[in-house]
Amino acid sequence: MAKVSINLATGSLQKEEIIVGIDLGTTNSLVAFINPDKNPQVINDAGKGVLVPSVVHFGQTGEVTVGNDAKNYLITDPQNTIFSVKRLLGRSYHDIENYKDFFSYKVIDDNTESLVKINVGDKFYTPIDLSALILKELKERAEHALKTPVNRAVITVPAYFNDSQRQATRDAGKLAGLDVLRIVNEPTAASLAYGIGLNPEETKTIAVYDLGGGTFDVSILQIQNGIFEVLATNGDTFLGGDDFDRLIVDYWIEKNNLDKAELANNRELSQQLRLKAEEAKKAFAHQSLVNDKIGDIWCTLDRNTFNELILPKVQQTITCCQNALRDAKLTVDQIDEVVMVGGSTRTALVKKMVFEFFGRKVHDEVNPDEVVALGAAIQADIMAGNRKDILLLDVTPLSLGIETMGGLMDVIIPRNAKVPTKAGRQYTTSVDGQVNMKIAVYQGERDLVKENRKLAEFNLKGIPAMPAGFPKIDINFLLNADGILKVQAIELRSGVKQEIEVKPTYGITDDQVEQMLMDSITHAKDDVSQRMVIEARTEGEQMIYTVERFLQKHGSSVTQEETAATHQYVEALKAALATDDKDLIHKKIDELNELTRPFAERLMDQAISHAMKGKSIE
Ligand code: ADP
Ligand code: MG
User: Fold this and answer.
1) What family is this protein classified in (predicted)?
2) The pTM is what?
């Protein structure tokens, strides 16, 4: 057994241990590792093949088969053969209701809001259990091929997977006996396999086109400072290479005048036709005509006809690409790299249309079925500490808040808060007649926003002019399960409202989070004292503002001596504000307060007293 030591200070691995990269696919799964030559390599255990069909079969006597052997039961024993389990991971019955007929096995749940279960015979399995069986198969194959225990893995998921789906993937890994070091987005992994993102200096915009067996995803990524950010995702969860096969079968049914209903009852023949269709589709890579027979059924197809059959489907994927670009607010010429992923991108028409749409050569040098797993292996290598690169993170472990006066961070959602979560606070204006309020959203643990990470900024406009401290501005943070933060600002007296959405988890790396947390501990003492100075200064500035306003408005009701003394005390406070001495500032505030209280008490109207109590943003 390989020994591993862990550096307790950093929590990172000290010694090299094989960490595998796993592409847990809807149709096919596979596992890869970094070989002794430092190159990513897919695992082909005992010549069983690299791809493990993501299919699980339960036999009558309880035996479980995974992969190719299980795939053979898809047609002959559909109730006991689970395919496409990835579609159910982390999903509730409510989520999948609309396409439950897609599954030939029994998907159930009593409570529509909780996660689905699958009923096989008299047993119930969760999608996590089933995915774990696939992962276990991959783990065993890797152990067998590499002749060493494999306990750690990086697993990929689609970029659009939400927290629940990501967590389910982690749980499946755990159940399979794997410590899941990182969940990585599939398009990120694919880019890594092409070496994109490994140079921290480069800034690039990448389109990842992933056409698999039953799903199509396009992701627009931006890589900057070694950080991947997902700008947009689009796709069709029911569009893939299986559709091409189906179209071919339908074509043969028509050409041979077969009865579709009759054929549906003949499972064996249906299966044969489907396999033949897939074979034909693949053959077009090197030949232009397929001429075959199943019994007395002619299975003839030429490449041009095939292209005509699939054209509408491919066109659909291009529309998704257009939508993704639109959402990312980019044009095709702003895309620097196009990466092809998924077995179906081997189809020549797909390649041609993607090339034409983006107007540039696409990356297809790496085997498209393997590219995600290979990238996951590179990420695993990074996790093992063998590379210094930094990568996309899947959770937000940092506090979220806004900037208040003096550049201080006011935390609204503290770190480690459970998602979804909601929190809010009320603010007011600091200046009379203030009609705009800048709301700057930050992430981080430091007391000063400038030490934290800015996520967004917007202006709440159209606040009716009121004395300082009068407006009531509610700021609400809503962090949903997908990690999207909605920030809403509403002025309660007028109903003026504005909101934005940001995704705090995008574009930040584990290393950065770790660094930010470390920094907050290291600087805690300094931060606190700085915060105290800033708070004192803010209070002082607020005080001066209020007093000067008061003199302007009500100067006539104050004696000349009082006015002169006030100016003198204000100057003294101003001088104190220029220092970092919070005690001095407080002292001067108190003195000014003492001096002005009598006449302020005489006259100070509600507005001003309100302003002094209110917490202000600007
Ligand atoms: P997923 O990511 O959904 O698990 P894959 O990336 O493994 O799926 O893609 C599987 C699909 O790729 C299947 O529909 C398969 O028929 C198709 N495919 C594999 N090889 C070829 C090929 N040479 N030409 C066309 N399609 C292919
Ligand atoms: Mg895939």
Assistant:
1) Belongs to the heat shock protein 70 family.
2) 0.66
